[in-house]
# Entry
Amino acid sequence: MPVRPLALLAATALSAALVGLAATPASALEFLRGDWTVTIGARGAAVPVFEGSDEMRFRPLPIFSVRRAGTRSSWKAPDDGLRLGLLQHDRLRVGVSGGFRGARDDDQSNDLRGLGDVEWAGEIGVFAEIWASDVLRLSVDVRQGFNGHDGILADLGIDWVARPEPAWTLSVGPRVRLASDDYMDTYFGVTQAQSVRSGLPVYDPDAGLRSIGLLGSAQVQLTQSWTALGYARYDRLMGDVADAPLVRFRGSRDQFGAGVGLSYSFDVSPFGPRS
# Structure
């Protein structure tokens, strides 16, 4: 199986960071010493049963982050996914990104009958975000899928982030999603065999625009340790995704989502005090 370019790039960047730490163990240990703030929590989201569905389901998701104690938590959009920054300079941050897509079984919904199962998919890639101003963030995330799908995904976003009060952080911004042929075929294509089983016409989508949308969120720091989050999202499926038989005849081009979460932050010193 050939090595996918984005997966190779992400793995190379991560390996370089680990090799750099291994080459200077004393410096790495000294860097890790001291207090760190760990944030853990959970959020629940109402999302479509499958991409393109007009039915909703509940999905629990974890919240986790680590930062140096005493530093301000960097703002993170609800759809940022897993991001590990490897390079940060002034207003620019670049690093490795990851994602997870749950399995899609044809017994999850009557709309999926005859289309067969799609296994869970992991995604790994690279991201870059830049703060064009104190309130405007631009972000791009490109990931390569494996296991369930072999496609390439690209997510682009712009966020206007405001802090009207010290405890409150509000954000809103547009989203654009694109996908390769492999991704489109896996989730929206209909083969001859699937057509016979499902009754849907044969369909072979091309790479291109998946959707355009809008995401808004509100975060409030309840106490020094507890933080609450709420968000809502709307996406309009576009191009070959919108024309897919699964969407046209059994789903909807309009995709909605919303969620709430609660997290708790505490300080730990797993490597001892700083010298």
Summary: The CA atoms of residues 242 and 253 lie 6 Å apart.
